[in-house]
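Memo to structure team: turn this sequence into structure tokens by end of day. - J.P.
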Amino acid sequence: MIDPSNLLHAPLYFKEDEDPNDNQATMEVFEINQSWRRIPQEQQQKFQSEGYSVVKDSRLEVQISWWTMTGLGTEGREWSLEERFEQISKAGFDGINGFLPAPEEAAQWRELLKQYHLSFSVNAYPTSISDMAQFLERVQTYGDVQFVNAQVLTPFLIDGPAEQLIRGITKLSWETGIPIFIETHRGTFTQDLLRTVAYVEHVEDLQLTIDFSHYVVAGEMHTITDEAERLLQKLLTRTSCIHARVSNGEQIQVDIGDAGQHPIFEHYKRWWHSGMRNWMKSASRDAIFPFVCELGPPSYAITMNEFDGRHQEISDRWKQSLLFAKVARELWQQL
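Reply from structure team:
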């Protein structure tokens, strides 16, 4: 008999005619406990030979934004399409968050994603339920999209009409089976922190992509007050995805240092960890939590030649993205 104290993040086994969500059915194999070590290979094989199947643990998946890859390369030459895929894979990213390929590019994207073993999520920019429905039709035609991140471009839509739009988008998500996460973002109907808190209080099924850099810069949050923390934590209860970018309250995107030593970064790490922890409370055993490293190129990035072309960045987007990925995995291990 395996000692449960020697197991950590074990895969969960169940027989084909058993419900994997039925804890009682799994008791004959082992007690459910997230502190277990992985079951030895020979024991896994024994379980499988006896008719058991495996249910994978929920897991973190670190993606990089395709937008972030804009202009990146080596020795003054921008990486080609396939070189970007290669670099993303070599760096250890699990997937790409990007844009739905044009029909003439779809086959190439499918092939490269398969070749480099990368998942794929896309961004949408609807202004109405009709917009969202049409976009989801295109997603279904393309296929193999993990989730849709939605920036709803109706910044002056508030209260009941905005909540009705959220419910309509959520209904489309359920009908199509495609997860849709609404991003906290300037220039959208979540641009205001208080307004978005009201959405969370009134719309039970709202799932958010958390990007607090927008609230920090919009509110000039040089320091995080108790009131701001309380409101932000309320949004974190609906975390379904995280977009990693750090604002200092003055600029939307700042360099956090080679080791993440910028003092405001401690707040972001706390928020990211809290979002992960909240997500974990209701996640199914095989669910995936997406964490997207999203650092914008110029003119989003701070440049040294603001007056002349805006292409000389003061930060290294690639290195900062790798640091965000490392921190995300460290935070996940602390859950």
